[in-house]
Amino acid sequence: MTAYRFVAALGLLGVSGCAGVQKTPPATTATVRFTSQVHHTDCDIVAAARPLADAQAVDCGEARGPEERLKTKACVEAAEAAGKPFIAVFHLPGIDSAIAQALLRATHGERIQLWYDSNPSGGPGHDRSFISRKACERFVQDPEDEETLRCESPPEAAATYVCRGTEYALGAPQSASGLRCSPIQRYIPGVFNCAWKKAAEDYEPVPPGTALACMKQETEPFRCSSTPEADAVMGLRFEREPPPGTSPEAGP
Q1: Distance separating alpha carbons of residues 183 and 226, to the nearest angstrom
Q2: DSSP letter string over 147-179?
Q3: Are 218 and 34 in contact (CB under 8 A)?
Q4: Which of 15-24, 51-60, 99-108 has the lowest mean pLDDT?
C-alpha cells in the first residue's frame, strides 16, 4: 500500500496445475484457458525506462533522497522549459512498500510516466511488484509532495502494465459450456468470478465466441478475464486473438 493514489487492481491467486485439452474448440464456442505455469520477474524501473529515452535526452538522474529529488525535479523543469527531451527517476517514500516513478519526454514532445510499486498490498517481497506506463499531457507539481512532479493526463487515459512480478502462462483452450460467470465491479471491465458448479443466482452463462483466461485453483469461484486489459491486470501472459466476427469487448 502506498501514500499515493495509484493502487493496483488485483491480489493474485494461487496456481494448482493445468486444465486443457489438445483440440481447440471452434471460434463460435465459448472457450476457457487455465493457468499452467508461473513466472517470477524482478521489475526494475530504471531498466524499463532507459530504452524509452531518446539518445539526446537530458539525464536528470535517479533520485533517492529529498535533496536529490528536488535537484532532479529542477532538472526536469529546466528541460521542459527548454523543450528538450529528458529522463528522470524518482524513488518516492511509501508507507509499507517501495515505490518509484520515471518521467520521460521525447524529442517530439510525447510525455510518459512509468510507475513502480514493490507490493500494492503492502509488505516485503517483490512477487506482486509491477511497472505501469501512462501517457501524460504535462508534468505538474505534486500537491502532496514538494519534492516531485506528477503526471497530468485526461481522465480517460489508462495505464498499461509493462512488467508484473508474477505472471502466468496458460494451458490449451477448452469448451466453456456449463461455466457461469459474474462481473467483479470493483475491477476494470473484463474481470469475472466464474464457477462450474456452485454458481450464485447472478452468475450468467458465457456467451458464444467469448475467450476466457482463468486462474486455476481448487475452490470455486475462480477469477477470469475476457479482454487484453484484464489479462494484464491478472498477470496472464499470452497473445489474445479475438474470434472472427466477435467484438473485442465481448465477455460474460
Answers
A1: 10
A2: T-EEEE--TT---EEEEESEEEEE---EE-TT-
A3: no
A4: 15-24
Strand pairing class (58-63; 86-92): parallel
Contact 176, 206 (CB under 8 A): yes
C-alpha cell at 97: 512498500
Distance from C-alpha of 144 to C-alpha of 42, rounded to nearest angstrom:
29
DSSP 236: B
CA torsion through residues 18, 23, 24, 26, sign: negative
Q: Reduced to 3 states, what is the DSSP secondary structure of residue 77?
A: helix
Question: Quick one: which of 169, 153, 196, 232 has its CA closest to 40?
Answer: 169
Q: Span 34-50, mean pLDDT?
A: 88
Taking only the tens place, the pLDDT of each residue in 127-163 is 668 899 999 999 999 998 999 999 998 877 778 888 8
163-218 pLDDT per residue, tens = 888 878 888 899 998 899 998 877 678 899 999 876 677 899 998 889 999 988 88
3-state helix, strand and coil shares in percent for the chain, rounded to the nearest 5: 15, 35, 55
